[in-house]
Design brief:
about 50% helix; disordered N terminus; Phage_tail_E/E; Phage tail assembly protein
Length: about 100
């Protein structure tokens, strides 16, 4: 893995304030990856940008590691859901604008 890939993974990994318990497994952090266009099918982009819970429940199983189910997303602490949703929304901002914002 290159340094750029490691950095991208780090900024797209969210440490959960309230870990999820799935059976014997405790999920303490979630890594998101930028969705491809096909993974957005059936979801309105405006709903994702508005952090709509149902839209996030549809998308997150497609782009999270470990894979979160819709039920997992529904069980998230609101602060964790908001943080993950903000990361999802940031994927829809052009890279040059994100970089400009980060250096400002």
């Amino acid at each position: 893995m290159t340094e750029n890939q490691t950095t991208a993974n780090d900024e797209n990994t969210v440490k959960l304030d309230q870990p999820l318990k799935r059976g014997e497994q405790n999920i303490e952090s979630v890594t998101l990856r930028k969705p491809r266009s096909g993974e957005l099918r059936g979801i309105k982009l405006t709903e994702l940008l508005n952090l709509d819970v149902v839209a996030l429940q549809l998308l997150m199983p497609r782009i999270t590691t470990p894979t979160l189910t819709a039920q997992d997303v529904a069980a998230l602490d609101p602060a964790d859901l908001t943080e993950l949703g903000v990361r999802v929304a940031s994927f829809f901002v052009r890279k040059s604008i994100r970089e400009e914002y980060q250096t400002a």
